[in-house]
Amino acid sequence: MPESDEQLMLAYAGGNAAAFEALYSRHKGPLFRFVLRSVKGRGEAEELYQDIWMRVVEAAGRYAPQARFTTWLYTIAHHRLVDHWRAKGLAVVSLDDEETGAPEPEAAPSAEPHRIVEAQQTAGRLAAALAALPLAQREAFLLHYEGDLTAAEIAAATGTNAEAAKSRLRYAINKLREAVGDD
Amino acid sequence: MTDHDDKLKRAYRGLGNEEPPAALDAAILARARERVVPRRRPSWMVPVSIAAVLVLGIGVSLRMKLEQPGIETSVPAPAAVPERPAPATPPAPATTAPAASEVARDSAAPVAAPELKRVPQKVDALRQKERFDEARPQSNVAPAQAPLEAAQSREEKPASADAISAPSSKAQTNTSVAVEPPPAAASPPAPAAGAPSLRLAPQSMQAPSRAKREAEPDAAPGARDLRKSLVTPEADPVRELERIAQLRAEGRHAEADRALEEFRRLRPDYRIPEAVWERVKPR
Q1: Of B7, B24, B277, which has the smallest distance from its Cβ to A46's Cβ?
Q2: Domain map of chain B by residue range?
Q3: Of the residues A117, A133, B66, B186, which has the fewest C-beta atoms closer than 10 A?
């Protein structure tokens, strides 16, 4: 029977390295994409991603399963990103109003069937819209779609209240829907 | 889940399923394994520890049995008394006075037998003094004064009986009166040297007093370090951040950076308030 994330984390804290490997394999993809889509460069993303996992490793001895492991993991990720944004001079208070630059242009579609091209174009529009979201809204969206966090869990991870988290998520989803032509 | 959400999800999946590079995975997993290794305790450690404790225990008890007659016949060390500073010598620095007096009290206790009868009276006086100390408004002055008083009383006692009433505060008077030894209390070999230390004894007996608490670290740096480590800033993130902010304010940025990094390492999920962050952030 597969163990829960919390059990695996406790097992790792108790000295079971294999438990960490299982936990890592479960969360590496979503967490990596969360970080990758939260910052601009891949190099930056990889550095932050590694740093987040190192913090998880360091904090393993103090881990207490008070909430879902995922919430705890993305709380750490959020704090690391906030430190990163702060270091870049982006004030967290104004995250909602922060408009980021345009995304990198997508690679030109190759000579493939029409539907694939269309899907790529949609993905390109979505990527552009996602990159254009204010930091807090983008973070809320990614926490929901990659981390599978509820609004309450997003609030807990980002240190805000549930209403604000809900509202950020709603704004983000509405903007992204518009971008993919789903009004 | 609505159709809109499904459509958005499908579009989002179209962005791709990027994964971290294999080298990064390997590095992270290796670090995670490294962290686990020190936790493993070799299997031989427990029996060896038990054996060591047993050997030590038996050894000590055998030694005590063998040495028991020697202990019984040993004389209380009056030799330690002459080592104490004579009243005529200049007073030691105020910070070391309580420690010295404590040593003096310990060594003088067996010699001055009548002193034991006076202990309750002393304790009363000390309690009064403590209450007075607590009531005094300038709390940060008191600890520094206590050793000073000890030094003063050492100087004043041999001069005359009038010196007893000379100190300005009531507490000082109480302490001085209470601690004055009876003329017969001092042992013949070193009456002059013994007397001051006996007078100082009550100062050092103020175990709960602030003076003692303040003076103790100077006397026992090891104990001070231990206490410091127990109330290490790690226990209180706010205090730790204040310390980092202080370092920044003093321009010690390298130390502040290290402290901030350590703070983040120990508390990855602690949310640093914006106002505090402004004071601690890397410059």
Answers
A1: B24
A2: 80-218, 232-280
A3: B66
Q: Which of A148, A165, A175 lies closest to A31 in space, CA to CA?
A: A148
Q: CA-CA distance, B165 to B151, in Å (whole number)?
A: 16
State pLDDT tens for residues B4-49: 677 888 888 888 888 999 999 999 999 999 887 655 566 778 888 8
CB A122 within 8 Å of CB A130: no
Question: Residue B124: which pLDDT band, with cuts at 50, 70 and 90?
Answer: low
Q: Closest-CA residue in chain B for A179?
A: B8
Mutate to test the interface with A, among B3, B15, B260 (most CBs of A within 10 A): B15
pLDDT one-digit tens code per residue, A117-135: 776 777 788 888 988 899 8
- Partner B, chain A 84-123, Cβ-Cβ below 8 Å: 86-87, 91-93, 119-120, 122-123
Report whether CATH 1.10.10.10 matches the domain A95-183: yes
Q: Tokens for B58, please give them.
A: 């038996």
pLDDT tens digits along A75-105: 999 999 998 888 877 655 444 444 444 443 3
How large a percentage of chain A has pLDDT more than 90?
52
Give the pLDDT of residue A61.
85
End-to-end CA distance of chain B: 47
Q: Which of residues 10 through 29 in chain A touch B, CB cutoff 8 A?
A: 12, 14-17, 20-21, 24, 28-29
Nearest to B265 among A58, A92, A145 (CB): A58
Q: What is the dihedral of CA B203, B205, B208, B212, to 10 degrees?
A: 40
Structural domain boundaries of chain A?
1-90, 95-183
Q: Does B131 touch chain A (CB under 8 A)?
A: no
pTM for the full predicted model: 0.49
Task: Report the C-alpha gap between A124 and A104 in whole angstroms.
Answer: 9
Whole-angstrom distance, CA of residue A183 vs CA of residue A140: 20
CA torsion through residues B25, A79, A39, B281, sign:
negative
Supply the DSSP symbol for A99.
P
Rounded CA-CA distance B212/B98 in Å is 7
How far is CA A81 from its chain centroid?
A: 10
**Residue among B181, B203, B213 at smallest CA distance from B112:** B181
Closest CA to A21 of B32, B72, B173, B48: B32
Q: Which long-range contacts (CB under 8 A, 24 or more apart) does B168-172 make?
A: B169/B132, B170/B132, B171/B128, B171/B129, B171/B132, B171/B133
- For residues A111, A112, A113 and A114, what is the CA-based torsion angle, rounded to 10 degrees? -60
